[in-house]
Amino acid sequence: MRKPGIIIVMAFALACTATSLAQAAVSKPANSVPLYQQMQKKRLTQNEPAQTPICENFFQCLFGGSRRTGGSSVNRSPLGGGGGFSDQVTRTTVSFDDAKYKPGTIIIRTPERALYYVLPGGKALRYKVGVGREGFQWGGRSRIIMKREWPEWRPPAIMIDRERRKGHIIPAYMEGGPNNPLGARAMYIGGTLFRIHGTNDARTIGGAVSSGCIRMMNADVIDLYDRVGIGSPVFVYQ
Description:
It is a single chain. This protein is of the alpha+beta class. It has a domain at about 90-235: L,D-transpeptidase catalytic domain-like (Beta Barrel). The chain has helices at about 5-25, 35-45, 60-65, 155-165, 220-225; strands spanning about 55, 70, 90-95, 105-110, 115-120, 125-130, 140-150, 185-190, 195, 210, 215, 235. The strands form 2 sheets. An 8-stranded mixed barrel has the order 4-5-6-11-9-8-7-12. The chain has a two-stranded antiparallel ribbon with strand order 1-2. Strand 4 and strand 5 form a beta hairpin. The protein is globular.
C-alpha cells in the first residue's frame, strides 16, 4: 500500500526539478559566457599594456620625429627625438649636366627630398634630406650667409608664439651640442628664417618633417659644411 505514496513523492520531486531547470534556462542571458572564459578574458585584459600613442618628448612632436606606443623601448638622446646621432652617410655622386648651375651651387628639390651640391665636370653630390611639412614648404633663390659648428638654437618669435597657442612652451635659447635639434652643423639661408642643418633623429630624413628648414644626417651636413663657402648660391624648388 506504500507504493502509490512513493510514486507520488517521486513524481512531485521530478516535477520540481524540471521546473527549476526551466526557470534557470529562462533566467540565463542569451549572451552569457562560461565562468572560466570570463576569468581568462579578465586575466588577458589585466596583462595587456596600454597602447596610447604618445610623442617621446615635445621636441620630437615639434621637429617631426616618429610616434611610438607606450611600453616600447628605443635608444634616444634626451631631446633628440629618438633616432640617436645620425652618423649615416647618404651622399652619392651623380651625373649633373645642367650648365645653369655653377660648381659650388646648392640645389634643393623638395619633391625628391634631395639636396644637390654641384661639382665640376658634369657631376654633383646628392644627399637625402628632410624638408618642410605641409604648409611650411617654400621655394626661391638665395645664398648662404653664415655657417656654424654645433649651432645654438634661438627659435624665431613666430615659432614661439605659434607653439604657445598650442599649449607648448619652447625655450628662447638652447646651446649647441648633441641634444640640440639643429645637429652638428648649420648653414643659414639669407633672407629667410631657414637653415640647412643636421639632426639627431635619423628617422626623419626623407620625410616632410620640419618647419621649413632643410634637415640632413649629421655625417652628411658635416661633409657639406666643409665644401660650402659663404655666398654659395642656394636654389629651392617645390
